[in-house]
Amino acid sequence: KAMKKLAIILGMAAIIALPTLAQAREVTFTTQLQNYGGDGAYLALYLVDANGTYQRTLWVAGKKAKYYKHLPDWARGSGLRSSEYDGVTGASVLSGKALDVTLDIPDALIDAGYEVRVDTAVEDMRDNRADASAPLTSDGVGKSFPGRGYVKSLSYSF
User: What pTM was computed for the model?
Assistant: First the structure.
C-alpha cells in the first residue's frame, strides 16, 4: 500500500514538474578558434554541474569517433558512449574559424550553477581539457570568455 501511495505521489510530482522541464530557449554558442597553424580541431562542447561533474554533451565537432578520446574531460564524462554524441556532431573546425551551434537548452539549466566547457584537440598537437569555459547564466549572455589553447573565445546568446 505504501508503494502504491509513493507511485501516485511521484506520478503527480512528475505531472506538475513536466511543464517546467519542457520550457527551453534557443541558445547559440560561438567558439572562436585562434590561428594555430595546424589541422582542423576536434571540439567537445558539454555541460558540467556546479561540482564540475559532466552532465551532457551539447555538440562534438569532428566526425571520426576514434579521435574523441583526445577530448579528455568530455571523453571521461561521456564514457565515449555513442548515445552521448549521436545526432550532435559535425565537421572539425579550421584554424581561425568559428563554430556556431544553436540548441534548445532547458530553462531549468540556466542560472542553476551549470557551466559550458569546451575540450579541444588537433592532430599532432596538444589536447586541451577545459580549453574554454563559461557559466550558463543570464548575466553571461553576450560576454566573451577566453580560451587557454586553441580557443580564442567562447560566447553565447539567447
Answer: 0.84
